[in-house]
Amino acid sequence: MTTGLDPLRLTAREARRLLVDGEVTAAELLTAYLDQIEAVEDAVHAYLQVTADNARRYATEIDSEMGAARGALAGLPTAIKDNMVTEGVVTTCASKILHNYQPIYTATAVKQLFGDHVVMLGKANMDEFAMGSSCENSGFGPTRNPWDLSTVPGGSSGGSAAAVAAGEALWALGSDTGGSIRQPAALCGVVGMKPTYGAVSRYGLVAFASSLDQIGPITRDVWDCALLLGHIVGRDPCDSTSIELPCAVELPTAERLDGLRFGIPGEYLAAGVEPGVRARFDETVVRIEELGGVCEEISLPHTEYALPAYYIIAPAEASANLARFDGVRYGYRAAPVDDLIDMYERTRGEGFGAEVKRRIMIGTYALSSGYYDAFYGQAQRVRTLVRRDFAEAFEAVDLVVSPTSPTVAFKLGSRTADPLAMYMSDVCTIPVNLAGLPAISIPCGLADGLPVGFQLIGPAFSENAILSAAHALEQAIGFDQVASFREAGR
Amino acid sequence: MISDDDVRHVARLARLHLGPDETARMTAELAKILEHVAKISELGDDMSGVEPTAHVIDVTNVTRADKERPSWPREEALRNAPAVGDECFRVPRMGA
Prior knowledge:
The structure holds 2 protein chains of 2 kinds.
Chain A: H1 12-20, H2 26-44, E1 47-50, H3 52-66, E2 77-81, H4 108-115, E3 119-124, H5 158-165, E4 171-176, H6 182-188, E5 191-194, E6 214-219, H7 222-230, E7 261-265, H8 266-270, H9 275-290, E8 294-298, H10 303-321, H11 340-351, H12 354-367, H13 372-396, E9 399-403, H14 419-423, H15 430-435, E10 439-447, E11 450-457, H16 463-477, H17 481-487
Parallel strand pairs in A: 2-3, 2-4, 7-8, 7-9
Antiparallel strand pairs in A: 1-3, 4-6, 5-6, 5-10, 9-11, 10-11
Helix pairs in contact in A: 2-3, 5-6, 7-16, 10-12, 10-13
Chain B: H1 4-13, H2 20-37, H3 74-77, E1 84-85, E2 88-89
Antiparallel strand pairs in B: 1-2
Helix pairs in contact in B: 1-2
């Protein structure tokens, strides 16, 4: 390409500078990404839909008409996970039941970015209704990990993470209910952050588990993550659970960790963490100490109950939220049918994939008469214990750190036959959602040639502290995707 | 232990059609998952004084001004409907 732009290397920070200084136009920047999509999308399948024509039209508009009225993110090519509704652009949640759904409004977080004049590249692939940890539950075919096409990108925001890793997007929005931003970011070697519950409006995010869902950024580095986060946070009258962060998101500059205390929960390292992942984690802990941070072992004693509690709460909420997909107002409708009930049952039976049906069944069972208190009530009490564990930990330390995922990217098909094995992918991320806390995953090296993610968790509303520490650590780690990527022959 | 009949009952509650093979597979998978999540019952008696958490962030009584706002135009709201009649969502008759 003539502009010399490298989508595998470019950050939003640099792209924005190039645009502001007039070194590239929004149209040229967009072309670099559309060319990369053209080159690799057949293999990666990060997108359910690339909205190239709209993007070209909009980029040209930004270049020609806006001048000084340009938004702060004008022209930056962005991927949006397909569970955020976009007016007039088909939004499927990777489900056949919504295969033709054309939203009549745009999700608040996306609308905020549109207001800053980002250019939407398309709608990113995902596990159907965000239920899964590998993107293999997409109703429209899996996304593959750009690091090794025989492995999964993680999930459920696998398309968003793979798009950023493959240079098919400058950055992306994902959503995280039990790890769905952080785990794919870890497996794809990029940065992903789940903000404090409520920090980002969920209006227009197709609901999965409402007490857990959060939208957040997936980016190439921590600085970009802070930039994107700063433009999606805020209270929204359309989402009564949304809140204003106590202070604005700051762009991180820290290079040291002096005086900061980091807790390492023994429970997160107990079982199932691969030796390669453990080795990179341990090295990163040493780096923290080299930067002046203090690391100590802590205990989050109810960790072993978090995953079981999550797999009651999330499916229970999902079974209620997904009741709306009934073939009446939008999406797929089965035909021919005997009567109304038959229409509901067949529409849902034919429209939902296997994992979504499993979750609806678990949730309906857990909420059904006679089981409610033993399952749902008890799980909500476990949630209180998990919150208390973190609250006690944060009396002693500033941040809690762990591997993001116990393993690197696994082979396609290797966990699809065993739902529980797939659920274990999120064992280090799920407790964070139960407690509503903010957390980030940053790449901390490779194991078996595949990226390893390092997770930093903070108290509610500690986004700036997390971003600052992650920035310092990122500088010290010096993870170079392009070098590793090219070395691996990608 | 969950049975095929339980699965059929829950599927009915969830308005979810499952084929015969699907029911058998669902029973086996749900049995494993329920066995796993039942781990929380271990905490049994310790939990009597523990309040359940329904919402993690401390916000209560979120209200807005009781003011009229325009709603979606009818044709917009009906745009995605699989079947429309007399400006309404059209559905099959109830009861065979």
